[in-house]
Amino acid sequence: MTDLPKIEILVTEDELMARIEELADALVPSLQGDWSAVSILIGATPFTSDLMKALARRNIHPILDVIWLESYRDARESSGRVVVRADLGRSVEGRGVLLLDDVFDTGRTLAFAKAHLLAKGAREVITCALTQKPWAPRGEDGVDFCAFDSPGRYLVGYGMDDAGKYRGLPYIGALD
């Protein structure tokens, strides 16, 4: 068994769950009617699961789908190019889409995904990220909903990884 690197816990599991409940409350007014929730794999999976449960407790039941986009591979910096590794399994034509991601950083991945979903006929796309970096675009080019502002550090845990490791940690941490 290998030792974990030094990981500073930034957001505890309890803080994550409380904030996701608040985020669900904020999303409810926007999610009336026919909606799909599209999770960007792999990092947003835990966030998506917990947010879907929080929405269900509020009687909001979007159709869940995933899209696998990649811009990092196993590096700590984006390649600057977004690749579709696996596309949607269900049509979003005429539906609203709640697009879920783990980290809003440069904005490239969410902008690509939003344009992709609109090209597939989504009537509107609302973006939602678990975290956003301090330098992430704000305003019109920013994310519509965000659970946490994060420091400009490399994040792991709760779906976020370092070369595939540490996704299962129940908290958000930062690597030294």
Describe the structure.
- With 176 residues, this protein is of the alpha/beta class.
- Helices cover 22% and strands 30% of the residues.
- It contains three helices and nine strands.
- The chain has helices spanning 13-27, 45-56, 108-119, and strands spanning 7-11, 35-41, 63-70, 83-86, 96-104, 124-132, 145-149, 155-156, 172-175.
- The strands form two sheets. The chain has a six-stranded mixed β-sheet with strand order 4-3-2-5-6-7, sandwiched between helices.
- β2, α2 (45-56) and β3 (63-70) form a beta-alpha-beta unit.
- The chain starts with 6 loop residues before the first strand and ends with a strand.
Give a brief description:
By secondary structure, the chain is an alpha/beta fold. The protein contains 3 helices and 9 strands. The model has no long low-confidence stretch (mean pLDDT 91).
List the helices and strands and how they pair.
Elements: E1 7-11, H1 13-27, E2 35-41, H2 45-56, E3 63-70, E4 83-86, E5 96-104, H3 108-119, E6 124-132, E7 145-149, E8 155-156, E9 172-175
Parallel strand pairs: 2-3, 2-5, 5-6, 6-7
Antiparallel strand pairs: 1-9, 3-4, 8-9
Helix pairs in contact: 1-2
